[in-house]
Write a structure and sequence with these properties.
The chain is mostly beta strands and about 800 residues long. Among the domains are: about 25-60 and about 80-140, Immunoglobulins (Immunoglobulin-like, Sandwich), CATH 2.60.40.10; about 150-245, Sandwich (Immunoglobulin-like); about 255-330, Sandwich (Immunoglobulin-like), CATH 2.60.40; about 770-810, Cholin Binding (left handed beta-beta-3-solenoid, Ribbon). Helix content is about 10%, strand content about 35%. The chain starts with a helix and ends with a strand. About 35% of the residues are buried.
Length: about 800
C-alpha cells in the first residue's frame, strides 16, 4: 500500500512539473489593462478610430519591461504585448489581425459591440509556443449625433490655451487630442469648453515640438457610456510652432563645475539664434553665435583667481531684432593655483609638504615660481627641473593672479611715479620709472604686484568688505625693493633745501601730456628725468648745484645783481615776478595734536627711516646724498630731520626768509615733520612685502574717492590726523582686516602681526620679474624677465634644451 502511495505521489509530482513546463513562459507575465474604457471616435468621412488603454506585462509597459537579472545574467526584454479586436456592427462580426492599442476602421456603423483582449506570446519550458492573455474589455456602444467643435488656440510661454464652440446639443464632455507621427493621442478631458495645457520639454501634458515641427491639437465632443467613450468628428486642427511656446526669460546663470572652471547655462527663448557676448571694459564683444538647435551652454574653462566676468546672451530674430537678453556678472573663486610667487628670502626646498622631509636645496629670494598645488602652509613649485615644496608664508604672491579683480592696480612707480611734495614735482623721481621697478609693468599693461601671501589673505577680506559697500581697493604699491627705498630717500634728501619746483600750466603741455616743471628762483624749465635746468637764452643744460656755484662765484666777483628792495617781487630772466611754490593759502595749518600725540610715527611703526637728524647745510647749496646705512633693520620712522632752530638749513632766528618755499618747508610744515616720516632711509616695511599703499575707488565707475591729499604726497597734508571721511573709511576696511596704519600717510597700511608671527626680519634688495617657468591647464611655458613667453624656438634652462611651440608650450 505504501508503495502505491509513493508511486501516486511521484506521478502527481511529474504531472505538476509537466504542467508547469507546458504553461510557464520564461519572462512571460499575463498582461493587464491600465484602464477600462474603449474609445470610439467617429470621423467626418465615416471612418472610425478605435482605441483602448494599453496593457502592461507586469509593472512595466511592454516596450520597457525587463525580466529581472538572476545570478548575474543580463536582463531580457519582456515579451511584446499585442491586441485581439472583435467588432459586431450592422450584422457583421469582424475579427481584426493582432494590432497595437488603436486602429482605423472603415464600413462600421453604430451601434456596435467592441471586444479587446491583450496577449503575449513565448515558448514554454518544453520549447512549445504558448500565449498568455488578459481579461477582455467589452463595450456596447450606442448611437449618438455629435458635431465637430470649432476650436481656437492661444499659445504662451510653456502653455497652450484652447477654447471651442459646439454646434447643436452640448455634449457632456470633450476630449483633447494631439497628433503625433500620424496617430492621435488623448491629452485631456473636460466638461467645459476651455482647457489650459502645459507644454514643456519634460513633465508637461504636451511635449514641446521639435525644431522645424509644429504641435497639432484638436478637440472632439463626446459622451460616456458603460465601458466606452464615444467621440464625434474632430475640430479644426490647431498648429503651434515651437517658437510660439517659448518665453523671453533666458535665466542666464554661471555654474562652477570644479575650482575656477565655469559653465554658462540659459533657457531656450523665442528667437532664431543667440549671441554670446563678453564685456571687455569698453563694450560688449561677440564670442560666438549659437543656433537654438545646438546647445544652451557655453564652457568658459578655467578662469583667473578672483577675476570678475560679465557675459550676456542675446536672443535675436532672423532679421537681427533683439527678442530678449540677460547678463551674468560674477567673480571666480580665489585660490593660488598657477599664480606667480617669489620667496621674500632664501627658502628651503623640500621633497614633501613637510619641513622634516628630504631637502632639495634652497631657492634664492626673488625667484619667480609657479604654484602647482597648495597644502596647508606649503606651495608645490618647480625649480631647476625639480618638483618640491616651499613655505608659502615666506612667499610673495602676485596679487592680480590671486585677489584678481577684487582690487584695482596702478603701480605708477613702474612707468610714471606720482611721488611729489604736495603739488611740487621732485627731479629724478616724479614722472619717472623708480629704480627697482623696471620689470613691474608687463607688455599688455598689467602689473606685477608682489605681496606676502598671508597678508594677501587679509587684503582679500578687506577688499570684499569694500565691495559690499560699492567700493574697490586700488593699490598703488605693494612690495618695494630696498634699492628703490634707498634711492627715493637719498634723492629726495639731496633736494630738501632747494626751492620746490612748480608746474607751469600756462606754458602748455609737453608731448607726454605733462606740464613743464619750472624752478621758481630762475624761472627756467627743469627736466625731471635728469634734474637739469635749461637756460632759455643759451639753451645750455645745467644742474642747480652748478648754477648755484656759478652764481656764488659771480657774487664773489661783484657781478651778481643786487636783490630786489624790500617788498618787491623776485623776477626771473623774463622779468616776470616769480610766484612762490607751495600750498600756503590752500590748506589751513592744522591744530597742534593733543598731549602725547606725535606728529610722526614712532620707530618700528612706519616706512623705516632714520632717527639721525640731517646735518645743517649751507643756504641754497644741498649736501651730497648721504651714504645708505648697512642692510640691517633700522627704525621704521625717525624723528623730524630738522635742526634745533627748526629749519633744515640752519637759518639764524630773525634772518629774512626767501620769497619761495623749499621742499623741506612744504614737506615738514617748517620742521614739525621729517623726511623720515614719509620715506624710509634704510629699510621699509614695503621691502618685506607686508606693506601696501592704496586708496578707494567706486566699484561702478572706477572714480577714486577724494582724500585730503594725493597719494604719495610726501608732506604733512597727508597726515592721518587730517583724514577726511573717505580716508577714515579706507582705514576702517584695512584695520578691520588686521592691518596697521601710518600716522603720516593716510594711504599706507602694513601687516605687523604677520611679520611678528613668522619672525620675518630680512628683505629683498633687488626688484622682481617674471623670468622663469609658468603653467596653466594646457602645460608649461617659459618667460623672459619682461614676461614674454618664448614661442617657436628652443630655450636652454638649467643646462637643458626645451622646444616651445607656436603658443609657447614646451614639448618635453
Amino acid at each position: 500500500m505504501k508503495r502505491i502511495w509513493i508511486l501516486a505521489g511521484a506521478a502527481a509530482l511529474a504531472l505538476a512539473v509537466l504542467a508547469t513546463a507546458y504553461f510557464y513562459i520564461p519572462g512571460g507575465v499575463r498582461p493587464s489593462f491600465t484602464g477600462e474604457d474603449i474609445r470610439v471616435c467617429v470621423n467626418g468621412d465615416g471612418t472610425m478610430e478605435l482605441s483602448w488603454p494599453e496593457a502592461r506585462a507586469g509593472d512595466a509597459a511592454p516596450a520597457e519591461a525587463k525580466v529581472p537579472e538572476e545570478d548575474g545574467a543580463p536582463a531580457q526584454a519582456a515579451p511584446e504585448v499585442f491586441y485581439s479586436l472583435e467588432v459586431k456592427s450592422g450584422g457583421q462580426h469582424v475579427r481584426f489581425p493582432p494590432c497595437g492599442p488603436g486602429i482605423l476602421c472603415e464600413g462600421l456603423t453604430l451601434p456596435m459591440t467592441v471586444q479587446v483582449q491583450a496577449a503575449v506570446e513565448g515558448k514554454n519550458l518544453l520549447g512549445m509556443p504558448r500565449r498568455l492573455s488578459s481579461r477582455k474589455l467589452t463595450a456596447e456602444v450606442g448611437y449618438a449625433e455629435l458635431g465637430a467643435p470649432k476650436a481656437v488656440g492661444t499659445p504662451g510661454p510653456g502653455s497652450l490655451s484652447l477654447s471651442w464652440e459646439q454646434p447643436g446639443q452640448v455634449p457632456e464632455l470633450y476630449e483633447v487630442f494631439s497628433l503625433e507621427d500620424g496617430a492621435a493621442r488623448p491629452v485631456a478631458s473636460t466638461g467645459g469648453r476651455q482647457v489650459d495645457l502645459a507644454v514643456l520639454k519634460q513633465g508637461g501634458a504636451l511635449a514641446l515640438p521639435g525644431y522645424h515641427h509644429a504641435l497639432e491639437i484638436f478637440v472632439r465632443a463626446g459622451i460616456r457610456g458603460e465601458g466606452y467613450v464615444l467621440c464625434g468628428p474632430a475640430s479644426n486642427t490647431i498648429r503651434v510652432e515651437r517658437q510660439d511656446l517659448l518665453g523671453d526669460e533666458l535665466n542666464l546663470v554661471s555654474r562652477e563645475t570644479e575650482p575656477r572652471v565655469f559653465t554658462l547655462e540659459w533657457d531656450e527663448t523665442r528667437g532664431e539664434y543667440y549671441e554670446l557676448q563678453e564685456w571687455s571694459g569698453e563694450g560688449w564683444t561677440l564670442l560666438e553665435t549659437l543656433e537654438p538647435a545646438e546647445r544652451f551652454t557655453y564652457e568658459l574653462g578655467r578662469l583667473g583667481s578672483g577675476s570678475r566676468h560679465r557675459f550676456q546672451v542675446v536672443a535675436k530674430d532672423g532679421n537681427g531684432t533683439v527678442r530678449s537678453w540677460e547678463e551674468a556678472d560674477f567673480f571666480a573663486s580665489v585660490d593660488p593655483l598657477y599664480a606667480t610667487v617669489w620667496p621674500i628670502i632664501d627658502q628651503p626646498f623640500y621633497e614633501q609638504a613637510d619641513g622634516n622631509s628630504a631637502s632639495l636645496g634652497k631657492i634664492p629670494g626673488g625667484t619667480a615660481l609657479c604654484v602647482l598645488e597648495e597644502s596647508g602652509d606649503w606651495f608645490q613649485v618647480r625649480y631647476k627641473d625639480q618638483y618640491g615644496w616651499v613655505d608659502s608664508r615666506f612667499c610673495m604672491i602676485n596679487l592680480p593672479e590671486y585677489t584678481g579683480d577684487h582690487c584695482a592696480y596702478d603701480i605708477t612707480n613702474s612707468y610714471r611715479s606720482v611721488f611729489k611734495v604736495h603739488e611740487s614735482p621732485i627731479a629724478l623721481i616724479t614722472d619717472q620709472v623708480v629704480k627697482g621697478f623696471e620689470h613691474i609693468q608687463e607688455e599688455d599693461g598689467r602689473f606685477l604686484v608682489p605681496y606676502l601671501y598671508p597678508c594677501a589673505k587679509k587684503l582679500l577680506s578687506a577688499a570684499q568688505a569694500a565691495e559690499q559697500d560699492g567700493y574697490r581697493l586700488k593699490i598703488y604699491e605693494a612690495f618695494r625693493p630696498n634699492e628703490a627705498t634707498r634711492f627715493l630717500y637719498d634723492t629726495t634728501a639731496a633736494q630738501l633745501d632747494w626751492a620746490a619746483l612748480a608746474y607751469d600750466e600756462e606754458a602748455g603741455k609737453n608731448e607726454d601730456g605733462s606740464f613743464p616743471a619750472v624752478d621758481p628762483v630762475t624761472g627756467w624749465v627743469v627736466n625731471l628725468a635728469d634734474g637739469l635746468l635749461a637756460d632759455p637764452e643759451t639753451g645750455e643744460n645745467i644742474s642747480r648745484e652748478d648754477l648755484a656755484l656759478r652764481q656764488a662765484e659771480e657774487e664773489a666777483a661783484g657781478t651778481q645783481e643786487p636783490p630786489p628792495p624790500d617788498g618787491a617781487p623776485w623776477t626771473g630772466p623774463d622779468g616776470q615776478p616769480l610766484t612762490p611754490a607751495g600750498p600756503q593759502d590752500s590748506v589751513p595749518a592744522p591744530e597742534a595734536p593733543g598731549p602725547g600725540q606725535p606728529f610722526f610715527t614712532l620707530p618700528e611703526e612706519g616706512e623705516g627711516g632714520s632717527l639721525d637728524p640731517v646735518e645743517p647745510q649751507e643756504s641754497g647749496i644741498p649736501s651730497a646724498p648721504q651714504e645708505a646705512g648697512p642692510p640691517e633693520d633700522g627704525p621704521e620712522h625717525g624723528t623730524e630731520d630738522r635742526t634745533e632752530n627748526g629749519t633744515e638749513n640752519g637759518t639764524e632766528a630773525g634772518e629774512e626768509e626767501p620769497e619761495y618755499e623749499t621742499y623741506f618747508q612744504i614737506m615738514t610744515n617748517n620742521g614739525r615733520f621729517g623726511l623720515g616720516s614719509f620715506l624710509a632711509k634704510v629699510v621699509s616695511a614695503h621691502n618685506r612685502g607686508i606693506a601696501l599703499d592704496l586708496t578707494l575707488e567706486r566699484l561702478d565707475s572706477g572714480e577714486e574717492l577724494e582724500m585730503q591729499s594725493a597719494i604719495h604726497d610726501l608732506s604733512w597734508y597727508s597726515a592721518a590726523y587730517l583724514n577726511n571721511s573717505n580716508a577714515k573709511l579706507l582705514e576702517h576696511y584695512m584695520t578691520s582686516a588686521g592691518m596697521r596704519g601710518l600716522s603720516s600717510e593716510w594711504w599706507h597700511f602694513q601687516d605687523d602681526e604677520t611679520r611678528e608671527a613668522i619672525g620675518l626680519s630680512s628683505y629683498l634688495f633687488k626688484g622682481v620679474d617674471l623670468g622663469g617657468w609658468t603653467r596653466d591647464g594646457q602645460g608649461w611655458r617659459y618667460r623672459n624677465p619682461e614676461g614674454a613667453v618664448y614661442k617657436n624656438t628652443t630655450v636652454t634652462v638649467d643646462g637643458k634644451r626645451y622646444t616651445a611651440d607656436q603658443d609657447g608650450y614646451i614639448r618635453e
